[in-house]
Amino acid sequence: MRAARAGEVTVEVVAAGAAPRRLTREATAADDLVVRMPLDGLAPATRHRYTIGQDSERVDGEFVTAPPPGTAARLSFLWSGDLGGGGFCRLLDGGYRIFRAMARRPVDFFLFVGDTIYADVPCNRPGVVPGADFVATTPAQLRARHRYNREDPAVQEFLRRTPVYAIWDDHEVRNDFAGSTDPLMPVGRQAFLDYWPVATASDDPTRLYRSVRWGRLLEIFILDTRQYRSDDAELDGPGKTMLGAAQRRWLVDGVTASTALWKVVVTSVPLAVPTGRPARRDSWTDANVFGMPAESGTGFVTERDAILKAFRTRGVKNLVFLAADVHHAELIRHHPTSDWSFHEFIAGPLSATLGRPRPLDMRLGSRTLFAQGGVYNFGEVTIEPAQLAVRLIDEQGSVMFTHTIGPE
Length: 408
What we know:
CATH topology of the largest domain: Purple Acid Phosphatase, chain A, domain 2
CATH architecture of the largest domain: 4-Layer Sandwich
Number of helices: 6
Number of domains: 2
CATH class of the largest domain: Alpha Beta
Distance between the termini: 41 Å
């Protein structure tokens, strides 16, 4: 939460049939008035309501906790990314309207899949709320860009009612950055941690990748595709990495050992859609405009294919990758070998320059089930024991496409 001023902030949390819990923390100017308050010991599969107070001011909200790993409870979530890109920032007339459409679809949580701000692009288009017409490079400027997006009334109301798991992509720092070489990475990472609830480990307070178990039906693996990345301009090969050795081992071991029915891997950049320039490919693939492998490619195909081979040889079933980044919506079925397949779902942008579909990396045996550019959008996934249903939804809340998958 962010306080109105320095001083004590109180949080009261209550669930039906339970006694209220009351906690206090001090908001300080040094922390940009941001207060982080971990809550533990909460009842699983339970809706909790909370009130945040400071002096006479009050804000109410709610969240739901995950069911235990053995419970096959129906669940639903939204995902999207890319907020405020290309100067398409908060409108004076209506703000970030898509969040109102998202709020009309009550779900268990929202996955914010990167580019939660565009620190490197000024909000200088006509008709947008003033206050972010600058490129952010300092801690104060980066925090201000996070505040700018979070101050939008529709965003605030949505996040008060919907739990969120957020991860960064490049624009929280600057376009196509690699954390291993970019000196601005640490301050961008800290601003992201200031403004999004990431429970970091005590022995690694800057680690952003993590997993979330949601009953028997789902486990989510949220990747950090930026912090440990080799420079995009390096030629692809065994020594080039997007994840770093430790995160790669965590991903392969975690997904293959998971007992959840569906394994969802959140990657801010797509597997099969090329991004960046040929000399600096930024997504996993180095494919050219025809979907063919590039000569002297600069993507991360070697690492991607090694991870996928490990999943295939270890018998991983019911695998889905979720992505954003490319500013169009697309549902893809990948069939890299005759005996193994998986899906990739792409949504976004929430509000940014609009993109369009492009040829996919042919090496993955990909088939597009649906693709749509030119529209702000988000995705919704509903999981039940017998099926997974995915919907792509536009800014007005209209469903553009629905696809259903039965578990293997």
